[in-house]
Amino acid sequence: NAGVMQNPRHLVRRRGQEARLRCSPMKGHSHVYWYRQLPEEGLKFMVYLQKENIIDESGMPKERFSAEFPKEGPSILRIQQVVRGDSAAYFCASSPKGGGALDEQFFGPGTRLTVL
Amino acid sequence: RKEVEQDPGPFNVPEGATVAFNCTYSNSASQSFFWYRQDCRKEPKLLMSVYSSGNEDGRFTAQLNRASQYISLLIRDSKLSDSATYLCVVPNGGSQGNLIFGKGTKLSVKP
Fold it and tell me: Looking at residue B52, what is its pLDDT?
């Protein structure tokens, strides 16, 4: 059973370009979470999705950031017009059931975004 | 009080030492807690879950004090491979299940 998969592992973009990060949850998991970790900081929640639904996006910046989890395919975190402050590690996690504090979230290896 | 606050570290200890990390949380309604381990430039991995007063797994013991809103992690007989950053994690008090992470405490075990 493959773990959570994220790609690309490293992404370099110039200011103003778009960054697209992908996450495939563990088999059987239908709940996906995205977190961002700035250098020397803790992980910060961004968004929680189920298939075709955004459940909680309270941690998402109001502009330039969007997320989706279509019926088929991976979850996508999209950052438009990237700025240097977007440089961070973006981790995706999945769980078999959502909304439950008792469910372990399994993390993917992360995508390290560098904005030049 | 910050949502989740940890000892700043770093902790530099010799092999075989016992080391303890502390964590305080602000949401008194939290029912469960986690310690994750994160190696340099890697993803967090669950180390222990704490649902009642505490939990023990081999050399690792987690304790919870709800009255003081305080969680601790004790590592006995530390190994070189224990070197990592230890993250105190508390589920969001709402119903959505997202996690609130502390900044982490860095542990370095020396030979």
Answer: 80
